Amino acid sequence: MTLEFLWYIPNQAEPGHRGDDVVDGHNGLGTLTAQARAIEEHGWGGALIGTGWGRPDTFTVATALAARTTTFRPLIAVRPGYWRPAQFASAAATLDDLTGGRVLVNIVSGRDDLAAYGDAEGDQAQRYARTGEFMRLVRRLWTEERVTFRGEHFAVTAATLAPRPAGPGGRRHPRLYFGGASEAAERVAAAEADVQLFWGEPLDGVRERIERLRDLSARLGRAHPPLEFGLRVTTVVRDTTAQAWADAEAKVAAMASAAPDPNRHAAVGQQRLLDLAARGEVLDENLYTAPGRYGGGGAGTTWLVGSAEDVARALRRYRDLGITHFVLSDTPYLPEIRRQGDRLLPLLRG
Question: Most buried residue, 156, 165, 171, 303, by CB count within 10 Å?
Answer without folding.
Answer: 303
